[in-house]
Design goal:
Helix content: 25-40%
Oligomer: single chain
CATH architecture of the largest domain: Alpha-beta prism
Bound molecules: ligand EPZ
Strand content: 15-25%
CATH topology of the largest domain: UDP-n-acetylglucosamine1-carboxyvinyl-transferase, Chain
Distance between the termini: 6 Å
Strand order of the largest sheet: 22-23-1-24
Largest sheet: 4 strands, mixed
Number of strands: 24
CATH class of the largest domain: Alpha Beta
Number of helices: 14
Structural class: alpha/beta
Length: 417
């Protein structure tokens, strides 16, 4: 199994262009199931999650290459357990299969390291559109005569549920309103892609999304092309890497407006940032001040940047606190950071981080995608060699991370064990 060898402390320099967004690519790949023609993508990210999702589309009968999906001849409506359990986002095939083919059998995704990750909000929304849903030996069995538009009020602005229901409503008769919808930029990118296919989605990015259903024959099958938005969480990770190493780095290829609250938080801690429309230049900012941060649905502080921020907070001048409101078990990076000298106490949803600056390199283990990124950031700062194991977690969401950091002058190598 590959691992990363990092020698710190590193100082970084130069610029890095982030890849396209994993969390926009996955729902957009699912949405190709709605379209009886070719969808070409100019910049799908090189991530294991993307490769995996393409395998799922192929298992349903889609014809795929590295950058194109042709879902004209879908002939299977079942997403198997051994595929879905490895990638929870596979549950996003449910909405499009149900909407276009009126049936779907999708394994319950099960939990993952960061939480139980139920899909009750997805399923109750589909029942509001007239779907018959039953759970049978670990599978979601969904069927309908014809979905009918309705008003759905989400009990929580779930990103996945919003996306699944937008796609389920695509061929529903009449209007669907999703209230208390998630507002993430990845939802807007999905809506733009769906409208390019000929569907009618309005209000994405706000809490109220309206989908006016189409009839199958209304949707043409001409080839369409789409460019996925930049990955704001990858961008946040490199911005924090520059702050951790007190370096001057330009991070580009994403909309800085998608990181407003993250940039405001960092500036409040003393970060010197030059913010442009599609890039941020980090200037050496020395030791920052601690802060108190609560994660929340967009536009609140993103849970996906929480672990990375913690790695920075642990070397600040002063103490910090993070409250993780989104996932019930998203502090697994804490014991691994402690191996490098971090002093962090966890009490339920709260983490109390002591600011100090004595970090020592150590062998550590990745537990989940964003926790892994936090370990890399810490290793860039720590004195001496760190070995970061189980980096298959990292490969899910960070394309060519070692190469990108190496090009920024980090002392990092990807090794084979
Ligand atoms: C998406 O997951 C992202 N994944 C996650 O990114 C991200 O952390 C999360 O949104 C929150 O922003 C993708 O987009 C592929 P949710 P998702 O539904 O859709 C509860 C990463 O690191 N909930 O908004 O699963 C759930 O348990 C990944 O890139 C229900 O209770 O997130 C959680 O506590 C990790 N019932 C909260 O809502 C449901 O039916 C947020 O979940 C659905 C969700």
């Amino acid at each position: 199994m590959d691992f990363l060898k990092i020698n710190g402390p590193s100082s970084l320099e130069g610029s890095v262009k982030v890849s396209s967004s994993k969390n926009a690519s996955l729902p957009i790949l699912a949405a190709t199931l709605l379209y009886p023609g070719k969808c070409k993508f100019t910049n799908l990210p090189e991530l294991s999650d993307i490769n995996f999702f393409i395998q799922i589309l192929e298992s349903l009968g889609a014809k795929c290459t590295k950058e194109e999906v042709d879902a004209a001849s879908i002939d299977c409506f079942q997403a198997d357990y051994d595929l879905v359990r490895k990638m929870r986002a596979s549950v996003l095939v449910l909405g499009p299969l149900l909407s276009r083919f009126k049936q779907a059998r999708v394994s319950l995704p099960g939990g993952c390291a960061i939480g139980s990750r139920p899909v009750d909000i997805h399923l109750s929304g589909m029942e509001k559109l007239g779907a018959k849903i039953k759970i049978e030996s670990g599978y979601i069995e969904a069927s309908c005569d014809q979905l009918v538009g309705n008003k759905i009020v989400l009990p929580f602005p779930s990103v996945g549920a919003t996306e699944n229901l937008m796609m389920a409503a695509a061929y529903a008769v009449g209007e669907t309103i999703i209230d208390n919808a998630a507002r993430e930029p990845e939802i807007e990118d999905l809506a733009n892609f769906m409208n390019k296919m000929g569907f009618n989605v309005e209000g994405a990015g706000s809490s109220t999304i309206k989908i006016t259903g189409k009839v199958l024959g209304e949707i043409k099958n001409e080839p369409i092309t789409h460019e996925i938005i930049g990955d704001r969480i990858e961008a946040a990770t490199y911005i924090i890497a520059a702050l951790v190493t007190e370096s001057e780095v330009r991070v580009e290829g994403f909309k800085s407006a998608h990181l407003d609250i993250v940039l405001d938080t960092l500036i409040g801690m003393g970060a010197k940032l030059e913010i442009e429309e599609n890039s941020v230049v980090v200037h050496p900012s020395g030791r920052l001040k601690g802060a108190r941060v609560e994660t929340a649905p967009y536009p609140g502080f993103p849970t996906d940047a929480q672990a990375q921020l913690m790695a920075l907070m642990g070397i600040c001048d002063g103490d910090s606190q993070i409250c993780e409101h989104i996932f019930e078990n998203r502090f697994m990076h804490v014991p691994e950071l402690a191996r490098m000298g971090y002093d962090i106490k966890v009490d339920g949803r709260n983490a109390y981080i002591k600011g100090q600056s004595k970090l020592k390199g150590a062998p550590v283990m990745c537990t989940d995608l964003r926790a892994s990124a936090a370990l890399v950031l810490a290793a860039l700062k720590a004195e001496g060699e760190s070995q970061i194991n189980r980096i298959y977690h990292l490969d899910r969401g960070y394309a060519n991370l070692a190469d990108k950091l190496k090009r920024l002058n980090a002392n990092i190598d990807r090794m084979k064990s």
